[in-house]
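Here's a chain:
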Amino acid sequence: MSQIDITAPETSSSSHGWRFWAIMTSMAVASLLAGLDATAVSTAMPSMINDLGTSQGFMWIANSYLLTTTAFTPIFGQTANIFGRRALTLFAIATFAVGSAIAGPAPTLAVLVVGRAIQGIGCAGLNTMVEMVVCDLVPLRERGKFMGFIFAIYAISTTVGPLVGGAFASYVTWRWIFYLNIPIAGLTLAMVIVSLGALPKGSNISPTSLKRVDLAGNSLLTASITSILIALTWGGAEEPWSSWRTVVPLVLGLVGIPLFLLFETKVPEPTTPFRLFSNRTSLAGFWCAFTHNMLVMWILFVLPIYFQAVLGFSAFKSGVNILPTAAVCMPFTIVSGIVMSKLGRYWPLLMVGFAFFPLAFGLFTRLDESSTTGYWAGIQILGALAIGIITPITLPTILTPLPESDVAVATATWAFMRGFGTIWGAAIPLAVFNSKAESLVAARLGDDEKARALLSHGGAYALAAGGSVYSDLGLDDNPSLEATVKEIYVSSLKLCWQVGLAFTLFGFLLTFLVKEISMRTELETEFGLAEESEKKSEGETGVEPEPSPIQTP
């Protein structure tokens, strides 16, 4: 039996100085910067393709960003212990701004993809450093309420992103998505320069410090992620899933990841130490983070197709229709973090959150052309409850069994698992949708060559993403064919939700592997505020109260 401290930690928010709140504010703005751009491109992509005059390789506008965000996340965790939090946070913001400056005026698709890839490197740093800095400043028991606030801002920005992207694409130009990032990045950079000056400095760049960077391991990881993403991009669209051009890179990528973990056991300062997975709670927490982000992306990926292809809404209106997710997700993310801090317990919240996901996905399978606004908005609320409750919980679940010295690498690995989940959260439903649509198009539109040609080989998704299904097919005067096309979309989307339901159940079962462990109430880190460290050394910190234990299995 284990004892769990349910006494609220003595450290209160009011005891923190102005430097603490300045850092928290700058981290919140950095989170907004990373989140808004991550999804704003989705609704603006058809305009980008139209302006740049090509549709070849358009998927890499999004995939190049996902690739570098995921692949570069672990290296930020390892190098943060070498060069310090401040230097890497500044580097991440500057890199993101440079990528935005390249993508905004991009004259060709290739230049746009390069800009997006550079943005992804910056985003990897932003996502990792924000959480790492919070962990350095606040004891584990108290982190929930601060992380809940920052996660809520990130959740809002990612959910509102499609609306912003659709608005710019419809009323100004898609290029403003990237132009807007530059002044926000400038503001964030100035705030970080001022606020993070209170944090300890790391090592200067030198041959000695550079030798500590796990370049070989990170190169292997990047190659593996690239190989997987190539397979997922080609599969079901440019190449059949059975083609060697799809199978070979997928197998190489999936084999490369365990080889990377094996290689890490031989490195003096590994990017991803194997000890992070040595206890069942942290291991389950990593997979919960992966599954959670995969399901979030699943909802944000599949719902717009439903709104645009089945209900006939524009890309902008589709972005508006996803707002219930943001409206509910934000407050529950904050509340969940506060409850965890007050109770000192993470497992019940994790289980309750994952219990809402199967309920939401099960109801999503019933969506069709006759579903009412109240129905699809209500289901979104259930899904948003799951998203909000879980969002601030997975990282504390991972960190609680681990020593504070592993905060940097564990946070980076957690961010990597979230990014990896995002990739699969778009790839799996896309593969399922394209495969089902392909078979239904061949079976039900055999006599209509134009419709069959436009909807085959990934065309059904491309038309839905552009919000131009029925105008491109010319179905205004053919209600019978329009009804058939809608049935194809409804059936294909239903299968997407059914497959997603299996993953929600997997996530729920994962929570039973998590063990409840007492959360630390003291901060033990060499990267915290200098003034806090001085107070601690002078004995100015309060005495930890006697816990009021409860017994749990």
